[in-house]
Amino acid sequence: MLSFMIVCFIWLIHSDVIYSIENTTVSGQRRFGYVNSSVTQLSVPEDHHVCLPCQGPDVIWTHQNTKVLVTRRGSYQTYQDRRRYILLMDGSLCLLKLDDSDGGEYQCNQQLVAELQVLTGNDFQVSAGWTLLLPCRGSFKTKQRWFRQREREKKEVIFTRFRNGTEKPERDGDRLSYTNNALQIRDLQPEDAGEYQCNGVLQARVSVLEDAVEIKNKTKKKHENVLMLVAVSGFVLMTISLVTVCALLISTKCRRRNRKYKYAEKGHVDTELSG
Fold first, then answer.
1. CA torsion angle for 95, 97, 100, 105 (degrees, to 10)?
2. What is the value of pTM for the model shown?
3. Could you tell me which of 148, 126, 134, 149 has the C-alpha nearest to residue 208?
4. Which residues are CB-neighbours of 40 under 8 A, at least 6 positions away?
């Protein structure tokens, strides 16, 4: 009974700690702006282009909440650089010829709309959960066949874009599409790591970094394992203690019983001798 109460107590502590970890992590993410499903997180190679969504007749686009890029009020528009930025009718902003300075947060009407990572070279490190754009470079064919080769695995076709614009995802279902004149991989996962080729030309080597959610899940799992180990160890120790106590009690009781029988037998012998 005592061991059962102790195990229940340890389990309650375990559940309470896990609940606290989850709430602390989520609240911390919300406080620092990590949890926002409406924010587009894009990783795009340099020298490519990308369009960021926003809707409204009057818009003010800013970069890193300080640099004003484009404004529109009625028919009046202002541009920080007309060669780099295009404002679409629906309020979306297109960035041309991306470079390192374009990375960061983008706000439309003071609301965070997108986080942009500009990738350089051919070795890309992208956070899990982000959207990766891969333009087909070095091939002038209208038809595009995209291949992925994971480490120690065979090359496989993952996406085909035909000459008439028809798209055929060969793998990963609706996570693959063609937009911004590039192969788009949404919600990047660790299994997306590998080499990517378009029409036989190497485009990128992609490494997928763990995001905050995965780190949180691993931390949670680690705490769960530690607490479960403590609970099991406590249960085993308590069981051993109870067995030891029971053995001592039984041994003591047996010794007392033996003494009682011994004294009774001695008294019986003395009675017979005196008779």
1. 10
2. 0.64
3. 126
4. 52, 53, 113, 114, 115, 131
Q: Which two tokens stand for residue 275?
A: 């008779």
Which residue matches tokens 């180990």?
Answer: 229
Q: Are 131 and 37 in contact (CB under 8 A)?
A: no
Instruction: Provide the pLDDT for residue 260.
Output: 63
Strand pairing report for 123-127 and 201-209: parallel
- Lookup: tokens for 135: 């333009």
- Token duo for residue 89: 């009718």
Provide DSSP, the chain: -HHHHHHHHHHHHHHHHHHHHHHHHHHHHHHTT---TTSEEEEEETT--EEE----SSEEEEETTTEEEEEEETTEEEES-TTTEEE-TTS-EEE-S--GGG-EEEEETTEEEEEEEEE-SSEEEEETTSEEEE---S---SSEEEEEE-TTS--EEEEEE-TTS-EEE-SSGGGEEEETTEEEE-S--GGG-EEEEETTEEEEEEEEE--HHHHHHHHHHHHHHHHHHHHHHHHHHHHHHHHHHHHHHHHHHHHHHHHHHHHHHHHHHHHHHH-
Decide: 242 and 3 in contact? Cβ < 8 Å. Answer: yes
Confidence check: pLDDT of 214 > 70: no
Tokens, residue 229? 């180990």
Q: How many CB atoms lie within 10 A of CB 143?
A: 12
* Edge-to-edge order in the sheet of strand 167-169: 123-127, 201-209, 194-198, 144-149, 156-161, 167-169
Tens digit of each residue's pLDDT (9 = 90 or more) over 117-126: 999 999 999 9
Q: For the segment 140-150, what is each residue's pLDDT rounded down to a tens digit?
A: 899 999 999 99
130: Cβ contacts below 8 Å, ≥ 6 apart = 41, 42, 43, 117, 188, 211
